[in-house]
Amino acid sequence: MQPKFLDLLCCPETREPLRLDARETLFSGDVVTGELASLSGRRYPIVRGVPRFVSQEYYTSSFGVEWKRWPRVQFDSENVGRPMAGHTTRMWEAITRASSDRVQGTTVVEFGCGPGRFLDVVRQKGGTAVGIDLSTAVEAARKNFAHDPSVLIVQGDICKPPFREGIFEGGYAIGVLHHTPDPQEALRALVRTVRPGGWIACVVYPSKGFYAYPSVARFRRLVNRLQPVFGYRHALAYSYLSAFAFAPLFRRGKRVSRLNRLLQHIQENWVVVLDHLPDFRWRVLDTFDAITPLIASTHTGDEVKGWMRAAGCTNIETAGWGETSVLGARA
Q1: What integer pLDDT is reported at residue 239 of this predicted model?
Q2: Residue 250 CB partners (closer than 8 Å, separation 6+)
Q3: What number is the average pLDDT over the span 40-51?
Q4: In contact, 138 and 154? CB cutoff 8 Å
Q5: Please, which residues bridge with residue 38 across strands?
Q6: What is the separation of C-alpha 57 from the centre of its chain, rounded to a whole number of angstroms?
Q7: Sequence spans of domains, the chain
Q8: Please, how many CA atoms are within 13 Å of residue 331, restricted to the half-sphere of its CB?
Q9: Number of H helices, E strands in the chain
Q10: Cα–Cα distance for residue pair 301/66, rounded to 1 Å
Q11: Which of 3, 37, 254, 324 holds its CA 20 to 30 A away from the CA of 242?
């Protein structure tokens, strides 16, 4: 953590400013170990360069496993010349509609940053990137940006973020809010951190489509029932099996008109298969991502727009990544 980021932070409980007590500092000025303290005596450790405002992952442990195993698969720099080349940047641009001119020189926050593939887009566009995640995915994110003084990674609860109100020029949450107990409250917390007139973008699972399939819900329940005994080994094994064997079979089979409807029925109700992704690595990752979360709700676009209005946003509209991709500005 660079000391310059202290002005962005506050105690998530009392909203008080924080004092930095650095114990190990690199030549670059980066604080590796230390402590943040509030005026009323609350203390938050800095461990391996990451301020920690929570002591455990709670309902997000699967994401810690996921992103430490695949920390860079979805970074555009890892996909040059591959089937998913440029996908992360195109996705971010479609969701946020934030041009390089709009991002350059600003500070942008991501709620639920994982290992930081979208933070990387912000940095490529010249912005200062701040990411918060409840899971130990922050370890992967910190490694990915270890030498970048314009990136801050924080471990904390996005429903109770340790950021000052109105401190960011823009903020977004991509594929995250539906993994919280209260997506509307998480969005409200995001909006509070953005200055009046600043932009907000979010995407959640739609109520129609892959993530609403009975097969996905069924697998997710089974994985989480077995997780206390097996960890995520069974989910990982299935993800590789599905990506390597089932996906190519389904993709070829769907080209036969007589099989298409049958295979679609099986996919929706019995077997989790991501046959549309052309990259094997992405299929494995996204299958694991679909079947392991403890919480994964689905929503409609109108529902998300209602959250935006309730949070005090204006200029609310559907963005370019499906019905539940919504943009707004803080009033």
Answers
A1: 98
A2: 263, 267, 273, 275
A3: 97
A4: yes
A5: 18
A6: 14
A7: 3-206+298-330, 210-291
A8: 9
A9: 12, 11
A10: 28
A11: 324
3-state secondary structure of 217: helix
Backbone angles phi, psi at 199, to 5 degrees: -95, 150
Contact, 3 vs 29, CB < 8 A? yes
Please give the angle made by the CA atoms of 63, 67 and 68, to the nearest 5 degrees. Answer: 115
Tell how far CA 117 is from the center of its chain.
9
- The whole-angstrom separation of Cα 184 and Cα 325 is 14
d(CA 194, CA 196): 7
Give the position of tokens 């959250």: 307
Dig out the tokens for 64 from the structure.
Answer: 């810690």
pLDDT at 184: 98
Amino acid at position 322, single letter: G
pLDDT tens digit sequence for 235-273: 999 999 999 999 999 999 999 999 999 999 999 999 999
Query: Cα 223 vs. chain centroid, distance in angstroms?
Result: 21
pTM exceeds cut of 0.85: yes
Task: List C-alpha distances in Å: 175 to 90, 141, 195.
Answer: 15, 17, 23
Query: CATH top-level class for 3-206+298-330?
Result: alpha beta
Question: Cα separations (Å) of 133 from 54, 152, 177, 203, 280?
Answer: 10, 11, 11, 16, 26
